[in-house]
Amino acid sequence: MIEPQDCGDGDEHEATPQTVPTLPSMPRERVPLQKSSVCSRSYFMVVMVFFHVYIINVIALLFYVHYNNTPGDVLASPSREAQSGSESGFQRDIYLPRLEGIRVGHVQKVSLMPGKTHEMRTLSLKPLLFEIPGFLSEEECRVVVQLAQLKGLMESQVMVPEGQEELTEQLNLSSEEIFNLLDLNQDGQLQLQEILTHSRVLDGIWLTPENLREIYVGLKADPDGNGLLSLEEFRLLGSDAFQRFLQQRGVKSSQLVRNSRHTWLYQGQGSHQVLQDLKKRVTRLTRLPSALVDLSEPLQVVRYGQGGHYHAHHDSGPVYPETVCTHTRLAANASTPFETSCRYITVLFYLNSVEEGGETAFPVADNRTYEEVSLIQNNVDLMDTRKNCDKSNLRVKPVKGTAVFWYNYLSDGQGWVGEQDEYSLHGGCVVTRGTKWVANNWINIDPDYQRQARYQQLVSLQEGEGAEDGDEPDEDGPPSQVTDAHQEL
Amino acid sequence: MIEPQDCGDGDEHEATPQTVPTLPSMPRERVPLQKSSVCSRSYFMVVMVFFHVYIINVIALLFYVHYNNTPGDVLASPSREAQSGSESGFQRDIYLPRLEGIRVGHVQKVSLMPGKTHEMRTLSLKPLLFEIPGFLSEEECRVVVQLAQLKGLMESQVMVPEGQEELTEQLNLSSEEIFNLLDLNQDGQLQLQEILTHSRVLDGIWLTPENLREIYVGLKADPDGNGLLSLEEFRLLGSDAFQRFLQQRGVKSSQLVRNSRHTWLYQGQGSHQVLQDLKKRVTRLTRLPSALVDLSEPLQVVRYGQGGHYHAHHDSGPVYPETVCTHTRLAANASTPFETSCRYITVLFYLNSVEEGGETAFPVADNRTYEEVSLIQNNVDLMDTRKNCDKSNLRVKPVKGTAVFWYNYLSDGQGWVGEQDEYSLHGGCVVTRGTKWVANNWINIDPDYQRQARYQQLVSLQEGEGAEDGDEPDEDGPPSQVTDAHQEL
């Protein structure tokens, strides 16, 4: 047995009582290994091993608690389990929170700024859409409108967009291939609505079924007069017949997909305090990492004059394997004609109360099904916000200071952005009296997590280089990405 | 300076080289405090303090990581924020996970048992409804059916339920008050569907609009023959006129709300391994704490013979302030006529593939709106599963071994059970050929968190007392709560 001992007896340093003892240094000289008393190196080793085992146990216990019992885990585990069950084994650090809609009409209180709570009402679940009255003060609305006016607004859509022929050449498709692409229901014939859908997306010209019938007559495109185009009839036409016809005839602004003027306001460092406050509020509202919000498009301010409108559209396109996002194209390192703006969330602010008209319409909100073709039926075109806003499932009246926001994409079930939410289709009803001022904040996130991560890394590397001038307006899209964000994913 | 030293020099025990040194015991004798060499008590204290500070740092770091960076937190924080914004300041330890539906048709892999993954398909979002093929093996289906047959099945519904007159007396309502309760749309008249809805819920008798017209004629209840009852006409009838009429005329089982036989199978300790396995699988599927699953109703096995049906109903009722749950009534310590079974989740197993008919119908799944009155329109009664299953929004065909499950309640937005999900309305279509065997697993959770917590505490106190015999069948409801669960919330 080892006796309790006071080996300090043999110590030369006869110490006076010390209240704050100095940390003893480790023995620097070799100690004969044979010694195994309480003060030997072996003893020290044993104590060290003991404590390290203890520490490892504590850590292990904490990890056990962390992964088994905590409320956070209760919520997180579904994603993890789902992920472990799926093919892709790669682990992510970030899980994007998504607000809960609960049910239409549900009201939840949200804290967006110190000392004030807002009420957020669920307007629909498909898309997941909320309304927050009083998101902006009267004063803030005024400032944003004035800043936009100072900066100057441009036409949101020029008559006939350019670059379209290039795209057609780039794709190099035969008439037959184009016909097949247009023939959505694959019945071997082109219905009016199939041509219309195509024309609206590609040409930005809003043809009504009546317009199209006139064009058919003008071009003698439909000799049998049944309102359908067969492959033979389509071949005879040539792929740019419609465009040429329309350019000759001229297009009024009310015949365009959108009829408004807009500008972009940079919200980063050095911008007006109101704009920075707004960005902060949006970050709190969406509960997304601020890096994601910081790296998104600037604020878009839009003015609809009397008679202005924006026919129903998606703010961001569907995700195919080839799709790249505008904001991460640099990091994507790929060339593809499928590019979309990847706007995960739209936050829309009403900067004034419109005298009459100008509602935001969601034609298919909470519909049981979504079928693109059935949007135009029996000559009723649900996407036409000049004619059929009253037939939309949901209309939001513009009230000064109110914000609405919705998700343009679903969740992928694993905490990231998934498929496009087709139900997010929306438009601006025609302003029948007065003017309508709104602003859009889009949160851009690449549905490809890796690409988003790579993009944010690239931006953080570039930081400090081109941070001064990030808000040069583009012709059509938003200005080039702001590069002053210092945070990473 | 403290010299490195080998104080073992003064040791009486001249040790031979030891490969496995024994753990030195602490000095048991008092050591003069003046000594401060490397082997003194001070030295030991310093090492201890150093290590404890180290350990505390590690723990603090882990907690920091836990509450700031982990994915669990990103998901959990919205609930917490929402809660902090709401009036009720009380903090809960538990956040019930809720599966994500994403969109109709979405398929996710789930791991329910070792070495196997199942595919779970989203069937609807309102209610949140999933289908999992192959949840049970052929053998397991056979065992469950046999166990139910061994135990013996009873009629699911007797002709005219008792206790109803007591309830009417207990409430002590005047004719006028009853009239007002029945007059759902408050137009001062009772439409056919208002009487029907009432009769079905309270009497369990499934009258069709034609039946009711016959009764009106038989009772001379509607002298003006307009199919509506005014307050005067209703007063003349007396509150139990319908019941008396029906009892005289007699009711066939096909005219009842449900036409089936069922039994209850206890799933706790000592029960058949298949039943215990099933419970485990349900726990993994729903991702709920096992204590909640353990304390829920036993498995209900139901047999529908040829011609059997169950008209559309909710498995659990709405939540009013006065509502108490059957399973927590003891803990609720309140007496109220509003009692419901608080079945948060229904897991329905198909134990055989039905030859013809017997689908599970969800008449209003993913409907844009839910209005009780509009369920019966133009003589088409969507809740009638003998007549109108084909008009249901969704029908699930019974396939042996498949499980479907859905939430009967929404989330409250703060991680607990919220309002009833009215869209969870469902029924069993009439079995036109063959027999249909199904089993139901219900997870009972009180929407009042405090009451559920109190109930679980009570059960854990009772543990060991009445754990043997928990599966005595009731006449109508499930057997009294099982008390063998050892876990708390």
Description:
2 copies of one chain form a homodimer. Chain A is α+β, with helices and mostly antiparallel strands and 489 residues long. Chain A has 3 domains: 54-94, no CATH class; 107-157 and 257-464 and 471-487, Sandwich (Jelly Rolls), CATH 2.60.120; 164-253, EF-hand (Recoverin, domain 1). The first copy, chain A, contains 13 helices and 24 strands. Chain A has helices at 41-68, 71-85, 138-151, 164-171, 175-182, 192-203, 209-219, 231-237, 241-249, 273-286, 290-294, 329-332, 449-462, and strands at residues 107-113, 116-124, 129-132, 154-155, 189-190, 229-230, 258-259, 261-265, 299-304, 309-313, 324-325, 339-340, 343-350, 356-357, 360-362, 376-377, 380-381, 394-396, 403-407, 409-411, 417-420, 426-428, 431-433, 436-444. In chain A, the strands form 7 sheets. A 9-stranded antiparallel β-sheet of chain A has the order 1-2-3-19-13-24-9-8-4, with helices on one face. In chain A, strands 7-10-22-15-18 form a 5-stranded antiparallel β-sheet, with no helix packed on it. Chain A has a two-stranded antiparallel sheet with strand order 5-6. In chain A, helix 12 links the parallel strand 11 and strand 12. The longest helix of chain A is centred in the N-terminal third of the chain and has 28 residues, at 41-68. Chains A and B meet through helix 1, helix 2 and strand 1 of A and helix 1, helix 2 and strand 1 of B.
